[in-house]
Predict the structure of tRNA (cytidine(56)-2'-O)-methyltransferase.
Amino acid sequence: MELVVLRMGHRIHRDERVTTHVCLTARAFGCDGVIISGQPDEGVKKSVEDVVRRFGGKFFVEIRQDWMNVVKSWLGSGGEVVHLTMYGLPLPSVIEEIRSSEKNKLIVVGSEKVPKKVYEMATWNVSVTNQPISEVAALAVFLDWLQQHREFYMEFENAKIKVIPSAREKKVVRLA
Ligand SMILES: C[S@@+](CC[C@H](N)C(=O)[O-])C[C@H]1O[C@@H](n2cnc3c(N)ncnc32)[C@H](O)[C@@H]1O
């Protein structure tokens, strides 16, 4: 199943850090890539691509200004859309249904106010508690539930550096 995150409404400067963290979290939790809509920001794309070069994997970052075309073409090609929102149905009540469908998933997170149309077009509107939280936290919890902790055992191909887990020190090996 392909997993892609759509980060909506990115604003240059203001969202730089959080959008980068959305991308890094998506990558570490096994997504194939992130599509960033809103203001085009090559800086965020470059810094995430630099992490991919060093830590491996095939993660992509794409910049697309029109989110609606992204969602329409995803649905049109048979995929499903999971919109993460505090107003949606509780994660525990829908996760089995989402997990049991083999279809590719576009996981949508917002930044500023999310247009009503997104709620209407989404296959599922899912809440990670009904309290306002960070999109990064919502994404991490959703992906962990979807994949049942598999992210802890993933390997990233062609990595140049790799962290060796340690109880007391920073251990890193260079592979290339
Ligand atoms: C800082 S919030 C801004 C939400 C915005 N005020 C709105 O009306 O949509 C940014 C994003 O975090 C995610 N988010 C925030 N709280 C959430 C929650 N409890 N469950 C799931 N996603 C959440 C949503 O994707 C949201 O668009």
Notes: The first strand starts at residue 3 and ends at 10. The pocket of S-adenosylmethionine is lined by residues 84-86, 109-111, 113-114, 127-129, 131-133, 135, 138 (CB under 6 Å). The radius of gyration is 16 Å.
